Amino acid sequence: MSAVLVIEDDDRIRLSLVMALEDEGYTVSGAANAEEGLAAQRSRPADTILVDLMLPGIDGFECIRQIRRTDDAPIVVISARDDTHDIVAALEAGADDYLVKPVAVKELTARLRALRRRARAIGPETVQVLRFGDLEVEPEAGEVRLHGTPVQVTRTEFQLLCELAEHAGKVLSRQQLLQRVWQYDGGDERLVDVHVGRLRQKIEDDPSAPKHLVTIRGLGYKLHR
What residue ranges in the chain does DSSP mark as E strands? Predict the structure, then answer.
């Protein structure tokens, strides 16, 4: 049974999320602020974390950053803020997905199921090292190296890189990547763009002029051999 932590300061919303997810079969705990949530995740790690952005004290962005320092559990932002800047900032802080309130329970649970499926299936079953010049990707071991030096990537970044590596030289559209990496049938393409940008910061010598992960304007992204 999957465990979910809900970090939400609005008592009514937090309780409704806890009850709705429990009805769907999840084990759910709640926290009214970031401090409580961080402590709860350290003592009883949840499989997935829901975070509101407008938290008292430590806000949601910093909460996500602190979780990401030691924990790669999938994080879903649930917020009333729908500005593109906020969405991008949350994803750059380390969130895996972003839903705008009010959230339909069926959509939320569908996203949670997709996140758990991704967590159980990283990379192909065969041992292999995929090489792209000075970039190496080892799917089964979960390793990425640039110039022989290990690169630290998040779970989502790794899955995105593996998908592109498995189809090296081919253009994958944003919708294809949403379906294959996030397992979403449709969705916000900004998820892909932000994670590509974060990945470039780690695997490119010059992220402003990428030589590995390139954009094919109007079509999508491609990983050069």
Answer: 3-7, 27-31, 48-51, 75-79, 97-100, 130-132, 135-138, 143-146, 149-150, 213-216, 220-223
